[in-house]
Amino acid sequence: MDRMPNPYRPGFNAPPPIFVGRDGVLASVSEGLDVAALDGRTPRPLILTGTRGVGKTVALGEAAALAAERLGWPTVHVEVRPKRPFTPLLVERLAAARDALEHTTRKAGRSTHVTGGKLSATALGVGAEVMIERGADPVSTIPADPIGRALTATMLAAMRAGAGLVLTLDEAQLATRGELAAFTAVLQEHMGDDWPLVVLVAGLPSLRDPNRSVTYLERGEWQELGLLDPDDVRQALVEPAATAGRPMDDAAADILVGASGGYPYAVQLYGHHAWRASDGSRHITTDHARTALDAARRELEEGLYASRWNDASPKEQEYLAAVAALIVRTGEATGPLAAAELGAAQSRVSYLRDRLLKKGTLYAEGPRLLFLTPGMAEWVMKH
Ligand SMILES: Nc1ncnc2c1ncn2[C@@H]1O[C@H](COP(=O)(O)OP(=O)(O)OP(=O)(O)O)[C@@H](O)[C@H]1O
Ligand SMILES: [Mg+2]
């Protein structure tokens, strides 16, 4: 029997075979595209936050796919890297998008003097229209800062092509506040230009930290991505198997849906291992599902949890254990509760909390402390 390719996609940034749930995100993206394409206005940005592996990056990808399928609009995607400015990459990608858009315009035989049709005055903004009409020297009419200049040129190219642009910024919590502020200042400055521009930003929950907040983003629409509903998880597991020609038994799906806890990364990982365990069979059975549980759990533990745990000092590990015990026992941990659990004064252990927050092993939601990787509290307790 031929070995069939595994349809599941465990791994960060790996688009799933089917994207489930997230109706709220898709509705907001759809609404944003409508506002930009039909009303000729720039919608407010959409900001997606959530823990590791919850599906922020693939949600950005879905937004890009929606814009491409529905409108034929390109997306400029930038992932912020640790300790590195993102502006050079953003400027480079904007220039590449501009080239592609200009190519489209040339192929369609449009010239910069076309003002009818899709190149309406409202979509362009007055200043922009004047610039095109006169073929004015771009250097004198466009802003001097690199992002502003690149974005202006790309948006003009998009509008000449009768299109718009989607801009996605991932791992935004890694950006410095200064750079993020410079980026959003450009967006704010051009809000009145009615550019057909849809901006999406994604990052860990620490993006919400009021100390780093940037006004323009604060006014955006924030959506926190959480765990998936059991029905959605079932669909994510069952459909790819059926499509690939090796259906999953209901009882096998029950096992995997329960074990995943709705954590998207785990859903793909369990699916992947169940497929592997069923190699050579005609369908995926409960036996295969059970084999998959062991293999997938080991991978989750060694890959996600152990690496975080080993990255913590002995004192930090004590603190993590206290937080885990509280979460497993009562569902809630805070700084004061963790101190009490350790039998220490809060002032003596708060530096541990701060360090773990900084490392991103824990994150804070108001006073509450949570693990950045779902399932880690339970793992720490068993450890
Ligand atoms: N809605 C979904 N339906 C099915 N699978 C999903 C969904 N969302 C995410 N996944 C799967 O979960 C995994 C993690 O997704 P992704 O890399 O987008 O997470 P992330 O939130 O960006 O994580 P990180 O914070 O580490 O960047 C991938 O294997 C992806 O295929
Ligand atoms: Mg990501």
Give a nutshell description of this structure.
The chain has 383 residues and is an alpha/beta fold. Helices cover 55% and strands 9% of the residues.
Q: How many domain regions? A: 3
The third-level CATH topology of the largest domain is Rossmann fold
Provide the gyration radius in Å: 24 Å
Mean pLDDT: 88
Largest sheet, if any?
5 strands, parallel
- Main sheet: strand order: 2-3-4-1-5
The number of helical segments is 17
- Coarse morphology: flat
Strand fraction band?
5-15%
Low-confidence stretches: 110-142
CATH level-four homologous superfamily name of the largest domain: P-loop containing nucleotide triphosphate hydrolases
Structural class: alpha/beta
Helix content: 55-70%
State the end-to-end CA separation.
41 Å
Assembly state (oligomeric):
single chain
- Number of separate strands: 7
H-E string: HEHEHHHHHEHEHEHHHHHHHEEH
CATH domain class name of the largest domain: Alpha Beta
CATH architecture of the largest domain: 3-Layer(aba) Sandwich
Bound molecule types = adenosine-5'-triphosphate, magnesium ion
